[in-house]
Design goal:
CATH topology of chain A: Tetrahydropterin Synthase, Chain A
Distance between the termini of chain A: 18 Å
Largest interface: A-B, 23 and 23 residues
Radius of gyration of chain A: 16 Å
Oligomer: homohexamer
CATH class of chain A: Alpha Beta
Strand order of the largest sheet of chain A: 3-1-2-4-5
Structural class of chain A: alpha+beta
Number of helices of chain A: 4
Strand content of chain A: 25-35%
Number of strands of chain A: 5
Largest sheet of chain A: 5 strands, mixed
Amino acid sequence: MISVTRKSHFNAAHRLNNPKWSDKKNEEFFGLCNNENYHGHNYELDVTVSGEIDEESGYLVDMKELSDIIESEIESRFDHKNLNLDTEEFRELNPTAENIAIVIWNILREKIPKKFQLSIKLYETPRNFVEYSG
Amino acid sequence: MISVTRKSHFNAAHRLNNPKWSDKKNEEFFGLCNNENYHGHNYELDVTVSGEIDEESGYLVDMKELSDIIESEIESRFDHKNLNLDTEEFRELNPTAENIAIVIWNILREKIPKKFQLSIKLYETPRNFVEYSG
Amino acid sequence: MISVTRKSHFNAAHRLNNPKWSDKKNEEFFGLCNNENYHGHNYELDVTVSGEIDEESGYLVDMKELSDIIESEIESRFDHKNLNLDTEEFRELNPTAENIAIVIWNILREKIPKKFQLSIKLYETPRNFVEYSG
Amino acid sequence: MISVTRKSHFNAAHRLNNPKWSDKKNEEFFGLCNNENYHGHNYELDVTVSGEIDEESGYLVDMKELSDIIESEIESRFDHKNLNLDTEEFRELNPTAENIAIVIWNILREKIPKKFQLSIKLYETPRNFVEYSG
Amino acid sequence: MISVTRKSHFNAAHRLNNPKWSDKKNEEFFGLCNNENYHGHNYELDVTVSGEIDEESGYLVDMKELSDIIESEIESRFDHKNLNLDTEEFRELNPTAENIAIVIWNILREKIPKKFQLSIKLYETPRNFVEYSG
Amino acid sequence: MISVTRKSHFNAAHRLNNPKWSDKKNEEFFGLCNNENYHGHNYELDVTVSGEIDEESGYLVDMKELSDIIESEIESRFDHKNLNLDTEEFRELNPTAENIAIVIWNILREKIPKKFQLSIKLYETPRNFVEYSG
């Protein structure tokens, strides 16, 4: 059992808001993050794949393939986007760092072979991050 | 002549757009950064003040005072804001990293005693930054 | 099961010394860290809370609340202090990085709801750190 | 149960190549990493030791001793070396980051007391790393 | 006058050696860096361009264009190469960090418009770097 | 003209205090930093040497020699020390980051050949630093 991790990143705008709550409750609960005009972050993403090494190649996974999956499935989907307005995933779902991590994990889980475990670490800022392993 | 630098940060949404250009030209020139729904960044800001040390205190400036100025003048103005919509400074001015750095420098220049030189370093992402010294 | 981590920091002096040992043994065992006049560190602290996401808010915990707990319970207690002289916790206990991590974990464990797991990562320098999960 | 981690580093050249494969297959599979003239990396290594704290000293392990083991067993062996040509370990074994991590773990496992668990984190670049715990 | 900086990177093998010196002198002077089988580094490169902001776009330079120049002129030339064997630039010239920085500056100077000043910062390791401005 | 920089570090305790001021004034002015029992920092030091490259070696200076000077002159003097109590330099002089940087520069200036320019960057914490060039 060994793990490899690839770092990537995307820049996006978002707003925290629960459409089932009143505007007043959203503002009280989410504070500045509820700004109706959005704010944004440089999201830094660590994708970790774990499993058994392939003895012939000495690779767990081909980092180039992993990197390509992250680029086509995550970066191209979320980079330079407004998460609330521009993405299917967060039209209904509140784009907290926790929910973004879960969404990313679910997308990648479909693309990473089942024999591997998958973990996600998502930095919303250099000072706070979320981890999710399914 | 000695310099002290204080790091701070704010998270904001923005969109690059020149209102005097056609939509087509803006889209071609600014690419993804022109997204009409905005994207965002964690801006990391280094403020550098230079001058002569005060021999009595051993300080160039009181870092707490410098930190308070940055918080009240820059962080509270730009943090968790949409630069294009929520701020006076960028209602007309295109919020490129270059223009944000110049705006920040001009704001701080008013608040930092004239006997000191002032320089700004603004990271738009961990991979690119702007420097401005007036 | 998801985890969120918040980074914080405090600057403190300390000295490694076991009062039950002779001065000679303390000096031989702890070397430079035994300096009777103290030395110090910028302690960087990662606090990780794990549990089930709150579906309504999309938060695991409110980062602002977590941040406030860390500030009032840890930073205000240890920042700009001499751990050996100024704190109850290390009057008898040797302030190794390991013991500081355990003390911090015990303090925070009282303040973080029991339904959450708690982990601590404490950097004594950028080159060595301790992890503790109870 | 507590963990301490020590960071260290070594700079080395390597080439990814499976001698049982044809040159063509190696080139196709490993791409630029197969360059017959080698390329290189600054490997950054985190060594994590876990176990029970020694109540008398307040240490899990003496960081100086751990640091000396890493220097004598890993840095002196691999630093400023060509992994394929200059080291016994990779004369037959393909020096992928995964295999280097496993080799380092096996070397250190012999030198770290059995009562401790051992984990390795090896950065091949600032953007990708491998973790191995035996 | 404003500056923008773009970070990039390449991984390469090299060996420090002055072909006009005896093997003995090279070994004594360059020590481990003279290893005839090469060692390597992750070179991290900051390219800084300075000049007058373009008032219409709000850019000093288009970061995408700058990034493309760095990729086509520097990364594709040096990444995953043996500097001594695979590159014209260092067939005769000793690939010290200083000389690599000067070579990179000279290459980029040809490609960056003359109205801009150009500076280079080249990290050979996270602990040492070279700066060159022509 | 080219510059090379070497990073190093030392951990020390200190207290900010002007012995010519009253206790009350010191406490008001320096706040937490005036704690009579000291606090401490991991000081991270960048030493930059600038001048003309030696064409024969391709070095500006031998990094190993520079590193040895920093270790013998700065690290061994200040590491794991109480700056106020254990060092000649700060027995009378208030050990602000500014004064520490000036003292380090003056010590190194004596040891670095006169043909080179010398600059110092001293991080007191990861969030603030001082620069001094004489």
